[in-house]
Structures are given as structure tokens and as C-alpha cells.
Give the backbone structure.
Amino acid sequence: EVQLVESGGGLVQPGGSLRLSCAASGFTFSSYWMHWVRQAPGKGLVWVSHINNDGSSTTYADSVKGRFTVSRDNAKNTLYLQMNSLRAEDTAVYYCGRAVWGNHPQDHWGQGTLVTVSS
Amino acid sequence: DIVMTQSPDSLAVSLGERATIICKSSQSVLSSSNNKNYLSWYQQKPGQPPKLLIYWASTRESGVPDRFSGSGSGTDFTLTISSLQAEDVAVYYCQQYYSTPPTFGQGTKVETK
């Protein structure tokens, strides 16, 4: 069974940092591109970033470029999102999702982890 | 960025009746190289992650009931639930994956009347 489990969310002050993790199981992690998508409370889905299957290529939404870094460890079947210089508007549930390639739709998602940026 | 606009924002339908959601993109998501529309539909129930329903505008994901269907091409797309069931109450999102960044519509909330 495909499973994606996010962790690392929590309350952080503006300007602070947080690292999210997404542990994958039930599939060959190194064969899939991985995405981060976020959802502010009561709002819609917003794509954040993706990384290719071997970690050599990454892309970001303009709103997080230069502040967030996506990475993966295929030996540990884990995806990461390092978030720096956090702002109130980054408050959201962050989901990881897998895709067969590139921007293709995410066919499995984790349950999400909540990041709250507040003083 | 390609802007995705859904209508209506919310929809109340009686159980067993048809629900139709429209999604329009600000530019075509039809690829001339493979004649495929890079458009997907997701369902999200409260407190849950999104679930992929349809990709390539009209291909149902494995396990999705056949009461869900997608149609359209270019810039205009439709998600139809042919006979609404109680478990279909959710928010539905369209997404284009033709270009980066992939973008979502604002969502359409489907409720029972």
C-alpha cells in the first residue's frame, strides 16, 4: 500500500525556520517525482515545489523561491522541505504527493502537516 | 502562470441528480505534440487530502466510480457527477499540468439540497 506521511509541522515565529519531512513506503520512491502543495486554512490548493526522481532538478513557486528548499534522500525514502524566513502567509497545511513525472497529477498524497507562522 | 477559474463556487444538488462543474483555463492546455489535454480533477473531503479523480481531462483514475466523468478540450472543461451520492459531498478542484507552475482552480463546493 502506498503511504506518504508528513511530519515536522508546528508553530514558528515570523522569520523562523522549519523542516518538513515526508516518509514514503509501499512503492519505489526513487522512480517518482515528488511535490509539495499547501492549503491555507479554509482556502484552496497551491502548488509549492517539486523535485525530480533523483533530486537533480527542483522547481519552486515564486512565492517561496529563495526561502524554501526541497530535497530528497532516496536511500531513506524521504522527501524534505526546508522552510526559512517564514511569513504569516506561509501558514497552511503542507501536503506531499507523488507524480509519475514532472507536473503530472499527484496520484497519492499524505495527510498533511500544519505549519503556523505567528508571534 | 495559467489561471484556472471554476464555476460555480458552490452547488447544491439533490441526491441522485446530476452535478456539473465548469473549469476554464486562461490559455489552452491542449498539447499539439500528443493531442492530450493536461487537465486533472481532484476531490477533497473535509479534513482529508485531495484525491485524484480524473487526468488527461477525461481518464478516470483507477477505482473512481463511473458516475464521475470529465470532458472538454483546450480551455473549457467539465466535471460531471451523473447521480450524486451522499459520499460525493466535497470540494472539487481542477488543475492544469501543462506548464510550470501547475495551478489549481479555486474549488467548487458540492452539497446536497
